[in-house]
Amino acid sequence: MPLSLLILALSAFAIGTTEFVIMGLLPDVAADLGVSIPGAGWLVTGYALGVAIGAPFMALATAKLPRKAALVALMGIFIIGNLLCALASDYNVLMFARVVTALCHGAFFGIGSVVAANLVPANKRASAVALMFTGLTLANVLGVPLGTALGQAAGWRSTFWAVTVIGVVALIGLIRFLPAKRDEEKLDMRAELAALKGAGIWLSLTMTALFSASMFTLFTYVAPLLGDVTGVSPNGVTWTLLLIGLGLTLGNIIGGKLADKRLAATLIGVFISMAVVSTALTWTSVALIPTEITLFLWATAAFAAVPALQINVVTFGKAAPNLVSTLNIGAFNIGNALGAWVGGTVIAHGFGLTSVPLAAGALAILALLVTLITFRQGGDADLAPATN
Description:
CATH architecture of the largest domain: Up-down Bundle
Number of strands: 0
Keywords: Cell membrane, Membrane, Transmembrane, Transmembrane helix
CATH topology of the largest domain: Growth Hormone, Chain: A
GO molecular function: transmembrane transporter activity
GO cellular component, one term: plasma membrane
Protein name: MFS transporter
Oligomer: single chain
Helix content: over 70%
Mean pLDDT: 86
Number of helices: 15
Structural class: mainly alpha
Subcellular location: Cell membrane
């Protein structure tokens, strides 16, 4: 295993932690800056929009740079953004800092996925991408709870200081250990944009957005579902979230290995599993043990899709791997926002928390239909992983 892959995973850990830890710190941030909880919640939305909007622009802005230089520059922006968060004196400065931090997110994961895939033989590419994204899943398992605990004990700014330090370590690792490929093809801006003309790439991005929407329709409201329907205590919710994090990590690893063998079959199987397990939660959520088992299986199925989705867009957009990989991260964040809205709408219209898993299952079925259309259009050759 190349050490550079671990450095990419560490970078992903830092980025994932800074994205999600704010959710656990919202009460502290709101109280310190004198804003409401919903007002502080816009710091989450602002970050997601920063990722979605900034991803394609940053990909194009770094298109002329070698991939190593691009990753180093993006990590530098990440460090500056977190430093500004730690120093923020008011809400507006913190919002600005969050958006600055978000600008690097999509491009880093997009370019980093391409770099990770190129560090290993062709038949190991999905596994390499999965290893990088393990950093993101570990951010949810360890980074978020530890960052929240640190922020509650020493002030929310201390969390961003800690993430800044991790970012500096990752930056040094990227400079020191990430190989610089001198035979790397120079990117042609027109060729990058021309790669977006095919229907396959847009279907693939739609697939990612629907997957994310399905996942976050349920994930966003899992805590109130556990508390109000299953009857889990606040402490029990924390342990359940840890169990979900372990499922996400396991799914990421399994998904990478499966996608190396049969890309389309992996995606089809994952979306069927998500639809079935999400729907099952509507009935299993009334009892603790069945709920825990269902959520673990759901998390495992959900993140098994991540490496496959990332390799899939590169397969269809191989003429512009940096751009399409970055757009895929943007699509993921658009789905994030869509899923939260769908789940909230279901609850607001009086259908109840137990209807949220049904909505998540319906979105997974839509993702499945788009997958079938995508690979039917691409032909049988696309049922195997890409070798280019």
